[in-house]
């Protein structure tokens, strides 16, 4: 059985009026499993908060809690200053798109999208125009009369998204909204959706484990793991200044090197990274694969560290290498990238240099 605990904090009503969504101290348990533990999070009015994290971290539970699907909240989930405890799902005025879509099977695509417009008492001609506009937005122009049962999983998900947007909810809750789509469509829709949310100043919470989705859509990103918020930040800042190795690891850093900052430059055995304004001292650098460039030794690009290629794998626009680095203290192997015009063989020696664009400074 699930228990739901909240610790109500006395925030003055005046300050909360335009605050959008605010969670304080939310704890949700399933029997002996604590799915959420003392969550403090907010999505200010008009902003998109992405909640990112590994599988089982509590993302869906968080969304369901905000939606009111978890039963009796007791006051620390608020929207626009209003305490939502006791407010049932259908009275919250929130739009939801969950992974399983949940379309009305007895209505066609237009009937589903139209539903939200009818709720807003939009006239017939305007409804038709709006349905067409929303279907075009989600890449389903002309699908009005298609039966819901004849849609692919990804198409159904897009209809669910159009239906939620049609209702112009005061808060939009999206659970992996683009996960069922192929890469091209996902990228296009993420950009369109970001634009739409921003133009309509919609407040939204997007739950995802996809970094691109989170960073395209969000004004702020929260990293949730094992029911706790590890860090909440503006996307760019989170990307370049993750709090610790766990967050950095989730954001793609695979190698960690000790370095030192002097005069706004962080130096480590692989090279240096400009970091203007950072105070001098020890630092831990997190390197993504794209933060280490490899060159065949014959090209003699630098006098930095060297390593031996252990493995290589072809990606769509570059080749990724696993490189053994006996010279580097504390690191056996690291991931590096190499241009696909100069791919070394396994066993070959490569020179390594740091690419600041793929690095992060931890704990700053
Ligand atoms: N109905 C349930 N009964 C018991 N435990 C549950 C239930 N739903 C979720 N949990 C547990 O709560 C924790 C958080 O689950 P949740 O589904 O919120 O994670 P998630 O981050 O959304 O995962 P995913 O990315 O895999 O969807 C997990 O440990 C999960 O096993």
UniProtKB/TrEMBL annotation:
The keyword Transport applies. Pfam families: ABC_tran (PF00005). Its EC number is 7.6.2.9. Keywords: ATP-binding, Nucleotide-binding, Transport. It comes from Actinopolyspora saharensis. The keyword Transport applies. This is ABC-type quaternary amine transporter. Gene3D superfamilies: P-loop containing nucleotide triphosphate hydrolases. GO terms for cellular component: ATP-binding cassette (ABC) transporter complex. GO terms for molecular function: ABC-type quaternary ammonium compound transporting activity; ATP binding; ATP hydrolysis activity. Residues 21-251 form the ABC transporter domain.
């Amino acid at each position: 059985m699930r228990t739901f605990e909240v610790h109500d904090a006395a925030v003055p009503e005046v300050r909360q009026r335009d605050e959008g969504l605010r969670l304080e101290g939310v704890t949700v348990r399933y029997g002996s499993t604590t799915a959420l533990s003392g969550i403090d999070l907010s999505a200010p009015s008009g902003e998109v908060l992405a909640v990112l994290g590994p599988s089982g971290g509590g993302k869906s539970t968080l969304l369901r809690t905000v939606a009111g699907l978890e039963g009796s909240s007791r006051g620390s989930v608020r929207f626009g200053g209003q305490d939502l405890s006791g407010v049932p799902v259908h009275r919250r005025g929130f739009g939801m798109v969950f992974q399983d879509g949940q379309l009305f099977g007895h209505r066609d695509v237009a009937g589903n999208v139209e539903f939200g417009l009818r709720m807003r008492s939009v006239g017939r001609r305007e409804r038709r125009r709006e349905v067409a506009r929303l279907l075009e937005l989600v890449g389903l122009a002309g699908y009005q009369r298609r039966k819901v049962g004849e849609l692919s999983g990804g198409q159904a998900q897009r209809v669910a998204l159009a239906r939620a947007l049609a209702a112009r909810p005061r808060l939009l809750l999206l659970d992996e909204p683009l996960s069922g789509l192929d890469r091209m469509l996902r990228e296009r829709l993420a950009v369109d959706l970001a634009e739409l949310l921003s133009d309509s100043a919609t407040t939204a919470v997007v739950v995802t484990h996809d970094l691109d989705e989170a960073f395209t859509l969000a004004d702020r990103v929260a990293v949730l793991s094992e029911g706790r918020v590890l860090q909440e930040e503006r996307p760019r800042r989170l990307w370049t200044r993750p709090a610790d190795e766990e967050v950095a690891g989730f954001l793609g850093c695979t190698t960690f090197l000790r370095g030192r900052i002097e005069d706004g430059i962080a130096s480590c055995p692989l090279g240096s990274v400009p970091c203007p304004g950072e105070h001098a001292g020890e630092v831990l650098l997190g390197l993504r694969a794209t933060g280490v460039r490899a060159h065949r030794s014959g090209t003699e690009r630098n006098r930095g560290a060297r390593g031996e290629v252990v493995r290589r794998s072809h990606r769509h626009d570059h080749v990724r290498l696993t490189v053994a680095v006996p010279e580097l203290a504390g690191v056996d192997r690291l991931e590096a990238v190499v241009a696909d015009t100069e791919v070394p063989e396994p066993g070959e020696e490569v020179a390594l240099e740091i690419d600041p664009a793929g690095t992060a400074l931890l704990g700053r």
